[in-house]
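Support request, please re-run this one:
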Amino acid sequence: MGGGTFGNITPAAEFNILTDPVAGDVVFRSGIPIVMLGLDVTYKALIFDREVEQIRSLGSPVSIAVAEMMEFYTRQCMRCGYTTEGAHLYDPCTIAWLLDPTLFSGRKAHVTVETSGIQSHGMTVVDFDGKHTDGRCNAEIIMDIERERFIKLLMERLARY
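Re-run finished. Output below.
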């Protein structure tokens, strides 16, 4: 989880990659298979008040605690201007991909991390389809999520507790 074709801490850089862009660049250059769940998809993994209330209505101590955390988090997201309604579920989005990758769609790309730019420091530079890197793609960039199915999966998992 990290990166994106846009930033959230600077116009170019996402928080997780910006905290250690050299490490991010090492990972993308490593040759290991990479699936990048960045801001492009996590900003679409929103939960809304009505869904938080559905979580609360599950009635377990866990679901009530999750609902309370989501209410606080939603207020913080709105206060900071990240969203006008709802909250981005970054970590649950990543876990959902591990549980059911069919919820997601993406594109192959070649990704590097800018480590020396003044305005672009920490930017994940995404070359879709490897157009500028001789077709050498080193990552699958997840771009979309079936949000309703994602929320359903979240509810199903929380209902177990």
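The beta strands are 35-37, 46-47, 87-88, 104-113, 124-128, 139-145. The two ends are 26 Å apart (CA to CA).
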